[in-house]
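Notebook, p. 212. Picked up where the previous page left off. The plan for this session was modest: take the two constructs that came back from the sequencing core last week, fold each one, and keep the raw output in the notebook itself so nobody has to go hunting through shared drives later. Recording the first one now, exactly as returned: residue sequence, then the structure token string.
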Amino acid sequence: MKILRIAGAYLAAAATTYVAAAAFYTQQIIAKQAAIGMVYTAGQQAETYLANFTGLWLYGLMLAVGLLIGFAVAAAVKRLLKPLAPIAYPAAGAAAVLTVIILIEAQLGGGAGVIGGARDAVGLALQALAGALGGLVFALAKGRGTL
């Protein structure tokens, strides 16, 4: 039963992170284009989000792997650093997302930024926030006393 709750919490966290990351990515791209005069209707914004949501599936898979590793490390670290236990999973989620972005950039050459929604400090912070939200969902969904 415990393992099912942890697995469900992980899946909820990965889904939350991906949905938020895709939304933040889309809004960052739309905001940058609006800054140069492009205008999107609400329907076009929704269509763009849906296209990004389905098109970023590989990024989502990488985020899920990063979260799995991050949450495993957080489970161990929070036992050693008890005062940090309440923020262990949100911090691990944020760190996992940033690590995934850094690794993608390193492998694909970086430059202008492979992850378009994370090309500036605000975009990068929003991607980290997506991971932190996933970590919060994981912490709440798994419940106390597990992992």
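Okay, moving on. Second construct, recorded in the same format:
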Amino acid sequence: MDIYLHFGNRSSSRAESAHAKLKQYLQVSTGGFQDVTEMICLAIKYEFNEIKVKLASERIQVLHNCDAPVFRELLCRVSHFALKEIHMQYEKINTGTMTPCTGHFMATMALPCAHKIKHLEGMTLSLDLVHPQWRIDTLRLNSKDNLHNDGAKEFDELLSELSSRYQMWPQSKK
């Protein structure tokens, strides 16, 4: 039985997708070390900006089907994907399509299932019922954050080490 927390990810296609996107930026397989480094940095910056834009959008947009009072505490604080998943569970109550609880949904998605929502009937769903994975209100994605700067420093040190090792290779391996 699938009982492990995986947040809905069941395949490696995300890694494969990231690899394909990186290959788009590199364009050729014969670039020099500096060129490849610059292209990878460009790809990372672009993806980082795309994530920031998407999060900013989700912080201000309210999904039209999640405007019921039960979702009030979750709006603009939880990702749209998570809200849609919770809404599907909520709809099971309204349509009478609930099946006996197996605990599967809550164990794998870390979101409240239809049974939990029904148990809290008449109450607003608390933010505590949602795993931090799905939270968008606490994410800080500014390039000025210390965490990002430390990461940039580590990345530069790694590139420097790789470059020095590369220089020691025989010409035939380069």
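Notes on construct two before I forget. Residues 33-60 form the longest helix (28 residues).
Flagging for discussion at group meeting.
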